[in-house]
Specification:
By secondary structure, the chain is mainly β. The chain folds into 2 domains: about 30-105; about 125-215, no CATH class. The chain is built from 3 helices and 12 strands, in the order αββββαβββββββαβ. The chain has helices at about 15-20, 110-115, 205-210; strands spanning about 25-30, 60, 70-75, 100-105, 120, 140, 145, 150, 160, 180-185, 190, 210-215. The strands form 5 sheets. A 3-stranded mixed beta sheet has the order 2-3-4, with no helix packed on it. A 3-stranded antiparallel beta sheet has the order 7-8-9, with no helix packed on it. A two-stranded antiparallel sheet has the order 1-5. β10 and β11 (about 190) form a beta hairpin. The longest helix has 7 residues, at about 110-115.
Length: about 220
Amino acid sequence: MILGGDDDSVIGPSDLPEAARVGKIMEMSIIVREKLGAEDRRCPRCRFINQKEITRSGWFICHKCDGMFQIGATETQPYFDTTSYDHSDVTPSTPVDRVGFVSHSLDPQRTLEKAFFRRISVIPLTILHEPKPTWYSRKVRKGLWNRRGDHLTNDLRLVHAPPDRVYPPELDTHPDGRQGYWDAAANNHVQWLKDRDELAGAAHKYDTFVVYSYYL
């Protein structure tokens, strides 16, 4: 599941191109939970064994009595001593007798595995460019371009060519002005729009959009 950084809204597959566009910083966190036994899923209030964890915070909602409880480890010192967890699922209106806590002894192997937790970041697109071969007969710019050197991003936002990069010879066969934009590698054409959105702050990143397909 992918969540937005502003309001924790779920980002679906159709919204992913906009959320993961060029120039946007993304961070990924992975939580590894140990496999729970039947006793760990047993509600401390009614003793019902639950089958599924259904809240983002790690709390269980008992399917029988609607009580809330959490699985935790008994440690003398927390491993991440600067981390606090806000269990937003427990509201002030929640009766106290609905909330319970189940604790089990910490396995030494689990403590060791915590040392391998890492933050994972998305690799910038610029270092994933296709390497230039030692020999090729021709090269074609990938993506949507016009003859002037203006580019449309994957989400169809406009990137203007800097003054010193306009009308490169390799785009001589591309449409110009209101004729639109052409992706020569994919043979795809997009029409010109007067009020097309522009990619803010893209001028200094222009070269990151200039990527080629090489033909032997």
